[in-house]
Design brief:
The structure is a single chain. The chain contains eleven helices and nine strands. The chain is an alpha/beta fold and 286 residues long. α5 (126-135) packs parallel to α6 (152-166) and α10 (252-261) packs across α11.
Length: 286
Amino acid sequence: MTNLSSAPKVWAHRGARSAAPENTMAAARAALEQGAFGWELDVHVTLDGVVIVTHDHGLRRVTDIALRPNMPVRASHVVDRLTLAQIRELDAGSWFARRDPFGTVASGEVGPERLASYAGEKIPTLAEALDWTSESSLAVNVEIKDMLGGDDDGLVREVVGLIRASGIARRVLVSSFRQNSLELFRKLCPEVSVGLLLDEKAMAASTQDIVARLQSLGAVALHPSIKGLFPGRIAAFREAGFEVNVYTVNREEDMLRLAREGATGIITDFPARALAALEAFKQEEK
């Protein structure tokens, strides 16, 4: 019988982004409200060197920058061509009601009052996100994004400083698809755990090769795409001594399957759904 503590931890992907605009403090609060273990967020750096929480290099998908006549031309609607002050002018919340990315508005799961509260939501800085996390019970997974030709090392150095200043290093897990960024982070900040993100294409490598990458990096975890995980792989990575936090897991049948296979964590847009599914897993195990 599996120990009940072996149920995977639930990480809210970009916050609970099925319930609130992704990578905002509203999404972080929703993650806490839904009972997640931690929240995952993404970071980029602005033109004036401030680390902010957003997933895309461009800002058009999750803000109203296209509607702002005082903003630079479209080619400059990217994080590292705008200052923090310019980015702070943007509304990063109203799009959620309009696009309803997970159908939670149409279903009534996210009601009118909550939707109205998202209007005018700002993109947070990493410092603000870490400050909020320090006051909450959540852990945080900081994903360092690829700067697409920008100053990747500069971003890493800023993230190191902010995590150290936060005083919650033990509750932080840093991840990236970019191995060079993780290598530099480990060199500068060995006290914080790191996880290597691998997409479906990278997961086509042999388990032995992936384990070698994790070992050379000094990582504690692999963060694989669910699409690259055939049966038995999780057990092999766990036996090699690594945690396995799988992204992005939104179907209940996948949550249950990953729990049965020994995943350490589930990164999901639906934390409450995951917790309900894992409750069923725990009942199975009794």
